[in-house]
Design a protein that fits this description.
By secondary structure, this protein is α/β, with parallel strands linked by helices. It has helices at 5-11, 20-27, 39-42, 44-56, 71-78, 84-99, 114-117, 122-138, 152-163, 186-195, 209-225, 266-279, 292-301, 303-306, 329-332, 337-342, and strands at residues 14-15, 61-63, 105-110, 143-149, 168-173, 200-204, 231-235, 281-284. The protein is built from 16 helices and 8 strands.
Length: 358
């Protein structure tokens, strides 16, 4: 039998997928603002194709496209055209079909509820988590991904339910350096996630790789101080959001329809992947703004550690080497790491250059 999540994490580094809602929104299959996953019923081939592109980019995990798939969120966002159970059932089938094309794990994703933010109690909120988990368990996902929570108390409740499945649990909050929306600092969030039973803890979404690295560093320090050793995970956004408050990219005026000029380059991703690895992060992917080529950059940066390049590197070489056959000499002159590592990308618009990772 293929190795499970924890064995893979123990052995090395696990590359993750992510960024589905935004990637599918751009392709025309998800509605911005809703970010709900009806595409698993309406456009199964589009979802499968994106899974496949992440797989080819070297992701070791394919997550079910079940983001915001709770009956209470669906009701508010789209009049509940489909139920959580219908969506999750379809999502699992699609993910499993593509996972069979490679040696990857299926992560069953559960996400935050509307009920918690409305002040509903633990029993009501956990009933919603159980409803999300039903189809995931029935379809035998390989592990659970409990992600995008902005309150540590809610993720504790989710982890508690997820644990009951007996599956490994990876848990990540959408917080930055300032902590959760109730002002619980990242270190305390991490400790509480680990104590609730998460095998992997970390952060996803809302912030860019720079802020995400700061946040995971704070998490690690607190976990170390408590003698806790969960694996660490980071799935930052692929948009620079320097200087934004605790809502990260949501506070950018360009969110969610004009974020392109903030997009990280594949070389920014190389630097993020290296820095995260050095910090001890072993489950590494991306969230909104990440596309398969960004995940390929993680796989290429960590090719030595992983002992392999991903399939889609057949059409790409790390650090620009692949462009040496360009039709003009001035372009092939850029076929080296030095050029791409030192590049400060511009927006191409009149005005200041955009931020660079360094
Ligand atoms: O799409 C994915 O890959 C998911 N695993 C994470 C999505 S994070 C989406 C954030 C939406 C923000 C909003 O509600 O405005
Ligand atoms: Zn996201």
């Amino acid at each position: 039998m293929a190795a499970g999540l924890l064995e893979r994490l123990r052995d090395g580094v696990v590359v993750g997928d992510g960024g589905y809602v935004m990637a599918l929104e751009k392709r025309g299959f998800v509605k911005a603002g809703n970010w709900t996953p009806e595409a698993v019923v309406e456009h199964p081939e589009a979802v499968k194709q994106l899974h496949r592109e992440f797989l080819l980019a070297g992701s070791d995990v394919l997550q079910t496209f079940t983001f915001y798939s709770t009956d209470d969120v669906l009701r508010v966002k789209n009049g509940q055209a489909f139920s959580c159970s219908q969506l999750n059932e379809n999502a699992c089938r699609l993910t499993r079909e593509v996972a069979a094309e490679g040696d990857v794990l299926v992560a069953g994703g559960i996400t935050l509820t509307k009920a918690y933010s409305q002040g509903k109690g633990k029993q009501e909120v956990q009933a919603i988590f159980r409803a999300q988990l039903e189809a995931l368990k029935r379809n035998k996902v390989d592990f659970l991904l409990v992600e995008y929570y902005n309150y540590v108390e809610e993720i504790e409740w989710a982890i508690e339910e997820a644990r009951k499945s007996g599956l490994a649990v990876a848990a990540s909050m959408c917080i930055g350096r300032e902590g959760d929306l109730a002002d619980v600092p990242p270190g305390e969030c991490a400790v509480r996630m680990a104590r609730a039973g998460a095998d992997v803890v970390g952060v996803n979404c809302l912030f860019d790789p720079v802020m995400t690295l700061d946040t995971i560093r704070l998490m690690k320090e607190a976990l170390d101080a408590e003698g806790l050793r969960p694996f660490l995970m980071t799935q930052p956004n692929g948009f620079f959001s320097t200087g934004m408050d605790r809502y990260g990219y949501l506070s950018c005026p360009e969110y969610p329809l004009a974020l392109e000029s903030r997009t990280v380059t594949r070389f920014d991703v190389h630097m993020y992947a290296r820095a995260a690895y050095e910090l001890g992060v072993r489950y590494m992917g991306g969230c909104c703004g990440f596309e398969p080529y960004h995940v390929r950059a993680i796989s290429e940066e960590l090719a030595k550690e992983r002992g392999k390049l991903p399939p889609s590197s057949a059409k790409h070489e790390p650090w620009g080497a692949g462009i040496s056959n360009s039709s003009f000499e001035f372009i092939s002159a850029r076929a080296n790491r030095e050029h791409w590592e030192n590049l400060v990308p511009t927006t191409g618009r009149p005005g200041p250059a955009s931020h660079h990772f360094k």
